[in-house]
Structures are given as structure tokens and as C-alpha cells.
What does this fold into?
Amino acid sequence: MTHIVTGATGFVGSALTLELLLRTDEPVIGIVRPREGTTATARLQQVLAPLVEGYELPAGLLDAIEQRVTALPGDLEQPHCGLDRRPTRFESDTPNLVDAEFWHCAASLQYQDRHQEAIDRTNIGGTANALDLAETIRARRFNMVSTAYVAGSQRGIIKAIPGELDLVNNLYERSKVVAEQQVRDRDLVYRIMRPSVVIGHSVTRHTTSSDGLYGFLRGLRKFRAVLDRTSPGLADELRVRMLAHAEGSIDLVPIDHVVADAVGLSLADAPTGHYHLSNPTAPNIGDAIGAAFDAAGLRPPLVVKSREGFTSTDTKLSERVDYYNSYIVNAKRFDRSAVEAVLGDEAKKGCVLDSPVLGSFCRWYLDDFERTRTGLQAVR
Amino acid sequence: MLGTGRCGSTLLSQMIRLHPEAVSVSELFSFVTDLGMRIEGAFPPQPIDGPAFWKLLSDPQPRQSILLRHDLQMPEVTYPWSKGSYTPDGGLPPIMAGLVPHLAPERPDELFDAIGAAMTRRPFAPVEEHYQALFAFLAERFAASFWVERSGGSLRVAERLLKAFPHARIVHLVRDGRDTSISMSRHIGFRMALLCGMQAELLGTDPYESADRSEEDDLTADLSSLLPENFSQAAFKAFRLDPALCGHYWAGEIGVGLNVLDQLSEGRLLTMRYEDLLAAPTESIKRLDEFMTGEVDSTWVEHSARLVDPRPARWPDLPDDQRSELHDACRPGFEALAARGLTWD
It folds into this structure.
């Protein structure tokens, strides 16, 4: 069997590809957007190779990347992902593609209103194109990586059932609710896999993500930088107010746990359905916020339950991290019974994320962010 | 003359322009630094030649240009469009924004050309020497025995100015931070400077110097709509800048600026309160003249005092919560001033 992966150069898609190489002997074909000066295969292999060290995976995986990973130049936003003129060649020249396991990981994680067209084009249009391609090559399973946050503004225990458009918080969540429905509407065997907030590797902390926890962290670090530029010394004194449900839990899940669950479900031939790829031992929101503020060089916030009494500074910070309100205000736990029913006790082990551990995830990201960024000096 | 900006110092330039012995150099450093966002460009660390210095004085700056193109003219931009050769769409040389029309409102192009001819002839020299030469040229041209430079917000570059002009006497004008902050929050130049600073930090690059937008998603919608490629007058006017945020800025500028001014030797610094200038103009202007010249020209004092137009403080009219927040934001600045004997109610 062959695995076809969209978004294989992305955070989840790349880790998933490595997990497939690690746990199967099967080839993996990525559909990769072409870049000038390099082939699709070379580009994908160049993304994957450094992750072997980053995730401390067996060195033998480097050979597997070279021998079992190829890529087809394509574009999710084109009909049949840009491969529409080649279905015949697909079927005759590479017959093992028929009955392939299809992994649709590509997505836009943008959420702002100003990006609506791009979000819809990638997440809704792209999913339709991926489904068309999967049907054309008669894929045996369609695995869609969605998000647990199709739950939108719900609180408490979230069942693994279809999301509702009237509960979404932003355009990203909306696009995923619509995309999931497109999957359900096709005559395919599917698995909708919903990671929660995916963070770096549980052991090495390595990440290529700049979203979720990391977007929040970056927002804090940049908030500190704005304070330093506009009012030297203020950041060391200021305690901002932050709207959050401190005692609730925020479902942060390391990338290796997510792809272990995803590939496990595939290998166990899990039935059509919805699966939460979340952390059974998720940390509490107060600890996560505290770790993030500390790593960003800010004093611990005053966690409050309403915006009453917000100062202009509190409001500015809130505007910068508004997307994350869904995570830290409407606390949720994601029901993993569907995953556990397939994977058994193995799926009940989580990753304990106490404050020191969370702090180490945060610092890893921010150190890497600062290292790879030119940055600006406020000049006087 | 240094200040945080919006502290009433424009009035001082208007007074100095009347002084029989002085040449009033107004707003040079506001505009050559492009509202404080190109400070390094205005103070290059290496020596430059005359043509390079003239380029610094005469090349339109991107932030000023975009404001003018969108019909957002700061009150400090006094260029008489009908009498000169420049247009808002084409951009304005930094010294044409305020310095030249302040001195030659009727024939700005003539003075501009004369400065250009003199400055381009200059040899390689540290930029400080070029600035000194510029001021000396203006003093000679206007038959003045001394010059006074004043730019809104120049407290931000106090350290550089003290280094550039090691023998200059310094006047520091201070106004109640609460009123200063309210005024900043409404002023085109300060709104632009502060939003550009936010954009630069959130983008990781100066959007007026770089096309890199890889961190654009970190901009809030209002700041994204004010990138150079998206800029509009409506978005600029809609940008919300609360007085309290300006209060934090004011307090920070005061704190850093006072520490720099503390380095000045006895007799080189005169600190004036704007409120004193309004309440007792004659006394304040006398003190200023004594500080500048060692004597008092009572005619000048009298003429200058007539320029004073007292206005009531604005901050007491704010709603209670905003007033309280603004006061809290300004508190570190007030404390720093109080430690030097300057207090407000």
C-alpha cells in the first residue's frame, strides 16, 4: 500500500510522514507545491531530513526518506490538486496508488477576516480538490487532519461529532467545519482526525510550528517588544489583565503523540468516524499562561473573568492574542473514547505538561524564533 | 530646545523667531529622522560628504510622504504649497516641511537652494559637524549671533544632540503629561510614529524599509490596514490610540530623557514648565532670555508674551476611568520630574 500525503512539508504532515516511514515499510508520496530550482521530491526530502535529528528519531530513517519518499508537484488549490491531467498515468504507471491511504494534512492556519478568501480557497476548496483526487485514484481511506476546535465556543467535554457553524469563533474554525462536512458528504471511507493544540516534540521540544501556543507566545514576546520601544521600563513593572478560565484545561498535545495516534488508527484500520488526537493529561490554563508569560519576559498576568476594568494596555494585548481566547476562555476537554476504542490502553497515556515542562517548550520556541530573526533595535 | 513633543514647544520657536539676535531652527530633527523612525539615518556613524548630508536634508522621507499623499498634514508642516515648487503628491524635503518656511515663508525655494549650495560644497566630516555648519550658515544668513533648534519629540534623541552640540545650552520644556498625552493621541505625527513603531515590532522589520511581510499575520487588522501598501486616510483616522497609551510613552520618554539631561553641567540646562509659560509668560520669557543671552531684551519679552494664548487643561474633562488610567500611565514620568523638583496637581 502507498500513502499519499498533502501538506507533507507542514508541521503535522512532515511528522506524520516520518511516523509512516518508522512504522510501516510502505512508500509515501507527498503532493508538494513546486519551488523554483528544486524538484518536489528534493524539496520534501530536505524538509524531512533535519527532523530526524530534531525529533531524535533513528538515523536509519534518513535512508528511508531517500528510498521511500517521493513527491509529485501539485497545488491543493487546483482541481485534483493540480494532478487532474494525469489520473490515467497515475493508474497505469503507478498502479500501487490505487487503493492508497490518503492523508489530507494541508491547511491554512490563518484565521483573520482579512484572509477569508485564502482560508476558504485552501481549507474548503483544497479539501474538495483532495477529495476529488482521492476518488479518482480510488483511495482506500481518506484521512483528514482537521482540528478539535471545530467545537468552537462549546465548553466542557467535547464529543467527537460533527461541528456546528453557528458555534465557530473565527474563519479558520468555520472553514474546518465546512471541510469536514465535505468529507462526510462523499462516498468514501474516511477518518476525520482532530488534533487539539499541537506543540513540539515531547522529548526534544523541537517544532516547526509557529501557530497555536507558539502564535500566542509570539504575541506576548512582541507585546513586550512594543512596550520596550514605546515605554522603556514599563514591561518590568506592568501586570496586565488577561481574560481566561485559569482552572480549566487547555489541550496541548505534543506532535509525536498526535502522529502516533493518527498512524495507529490507520494501522488498526479504524472505522469511518471522528477521532480526537488530544492529550488525556492536558495542563490547566493558568499554568500554561504563566509559563508563556514567563518565557516571554513578562510578569505573570492578573487572570480575570471579565473585561471590566481593562486598561488600554490590557485591551491592546487582548487584541493581539484574541484568536487564542477560544482556547483559554472556553475551557474544553476532548472525548477520546473513539481513539481509545481502537488503540486500547496505549491511547490513555498522555504527556504530563506541568509548569516547568511547559516553560521548556516555550523557551525552545522563543530561542529558535529569536535566533532565526533579524529583529529590530529601537533607536534613540 | 528639547521636549517630549506636544509640550507646547512650537510656541517657543515662534518666540525665538522674533528674537533680534537669534535664528530659529524649527523641526529639523523631527523631519530628518522621519518622525523618529530613521534616527540612525539622520546620525550616520561614519563621516559623510556634503552631497550626502544634503541628501539627508532634502530627500523626502517615506512616512511624511505617505501622510501628505493622503491629505494628512501635520500642523508642523508649514510649507506654503502655493508659493513653492513642491506638491503633496511628490513629497517634501525634510527641511522644507518646517525649517525653511519657518524662516522664509514668502520665498522658501530661494532659501532651500542657498542651503543646498552651501551644504553640498562641504567636505567629508562627521554629521555633527555638518549640522553645526548648517546652523552657522543660517545664523550668518539671518544676521544672528546664536541659533536655537527645536523639534517636537527631540528628547528622544537627547543623547545624540548633547554629543553633537557639546557646548550648546539646553532648554527642556515640560508640560503636564496628561495633557501632553491627550494631545499626542490626536496628533497626526505622533499617531504615525507610534503606529509605525508597533508595526515594526510586530513585523520584525520596518515596512517602509523592507518588503518582507513574512510576519504580517502578527499584525492586528488595524495595523495591517496601515501598512504602506494598504494605507488610507480613513484607516489612519480610525486607528485607536488611547491617551493612556500615550501616557506610557510620555512617562518613558521623560524617564530616559531626564537621565540624559542629568549629565549636563551646572548652568547648561534650563527646565521650563509649559503651564508656567502660560500663567506667567513675562517671567518665563525673561528667564529664557537670561539663560540664552545673559540679559533681557524687554521688547522681545513683550512681543513674545503676546503670542501666549492660555488654554485650560483638557485632562480634567476625561471620564473618571480614563482620567484615572491616564494618571496611572503618566505616574512614573511625574515621579521622575518630582524627584527633580517639578510637580503638578
Observations:
- The first helix of chain A runs from residue 11 to 23.
- Chain A has a mean pLDDT of 93.
- The longest strand of chain A covers residues 190-195.
